[in-house]
Specification:
Layout lengths: L2 H34 L6 H70 L1
Length: 113
């Protein structure tokens, strides 16, 4: 693998790691806010509710990211196929245009003699 690709891949992994940790921290903050609205909870109950909230939120985020990544892969395949077809058509049209132009020039040369 080229160094540029390795660097880009490493940066993408670090970015993903940081984004994921930010998401988990956001879930923890929201869990704390949620349990603060329930003043009758004991400390142990509060910790349990926060743990369950964070666990559920992280699971939902993971499912969402997995679904988005799968869809991105599908779209990449679809767009690659479309691009390949479009490129093949453009090449075919270019070859056809060159052929027609060359044939026309040859015909005009023969006629003008």
């Amino acid at each position: 693998m080229k160094p540029d690709k390795e660097s880009a891949r490493g940066l993408a992994q670090v970015e993903g790691y940081l984004l994921w940790n930010a998401e988990v921290e956001q879930a923890r903050r929201e869990a704390r806010l949620f349990t603060e609205a329930l003043p009758w909870l004991t400390t142990a109950q509060r910790e349990d509710v926060e743990r369950v909230y964070v666990t559920d939120r992280v699971a939902v985020c993971r499912e969402t990211l997995t679904r988005i990544a799968g869809r991105a892969t599908e779209l990449r395949g679809e767009y690659t196929a479309r691009y390949d077809r479009l490129r093949a058509r453009c090449v075919a049209m270019s070859v056809l245009a060159v052929g027609i132009t060359g044939g026309t020039c040859a015909a005009l040369t023969l006629i003008s003699r």
